[in-house]
Design a protein that fits this description.
With about 170 residues, the protein is of the alpha+beta class. Helices cover about 25% and strands about 35% of the residues. It is built from five helices and ten strands. It is globular and about 45 Å long. The two termini are about 35 Å apart.
Length: about 170
């Protein structure tokens, strides 16, 4: 292998989606983010949250579909969560956009569900996880079969709210 090939391969290895911070419309998970950044990029206003965090709630779009957004910036000014909910009829287009930007999901789960009337259906959960501990979780339905969700979050956010789950390393062992 020549002297040029080794640095090039190393550069490629550290720019893959598995290593890079995930972002939503230029807001990068775990990166310094201000209320002004959220307003400029998403036109959503932020307010005070718990423990000196900022919480931003409002409408945006995901894959050209209207979505309700919940964004959390921690007390140190780092973006911890972008949670989006939208009508489930538009999930396929949003999933295509996620795959185009971030590659195939790290894991896909089929979760059988049943409503109070006995109707059974399957929710498909897709997960992207990088080595930094950031995740993207895309569900074709939430607690309502008519609502889909995409959530970008950090390991710190999941730990704070008790949703740590398996690490990216553990996911490779499945």
């Amino acid at each position: 292998m020549n002297a040029f090939a080794v640095p090039t391969l190393l550069a490629l290895a550290f720019t893959t989606p598995q290593c890079a911070a995930y972002d939503f419309k230029g807001l990068h998970m775990g990166a310094p983010t201000s209320a002004e950044d959220v307003l400029d990029k998403l036109n959503i206003v932020c307010g005070e949250g718990v423990e000196s965090s900022l919480v931003c709630n409002g409408m945006t779009t995901v894959a050209d579909v209207d979505a309700q957004a919940n964004i959390v910036i921690d007390a140190s000014g780092k973006l911890q969560r972008v949670a989006l909910t939208f009508h489930a009829a538009y999930f396929a287009g949003a999933l295509d956009a996620l795959v185009a930007k971030f590659g195939k999901p790290t894991r896909t789960l089929r979760v059988p569900l049943q409503n109070v009337y006995g109707a059974r259906y399957v929710r498909i959960e897709r997960l992207w996880a990088n080595r930094r501990g950031d995740r993207i979780e895309a569900d074709d339905m939430t607690s309502s079969p008519d609502e889909a969700s995409i959530t970008f979050n950090t390991a710190a956010e999941r730990k704070q709210f008790g949703r740590a789950g398996p690490s990216a390393k553990a996911l490779k062992d499945l």
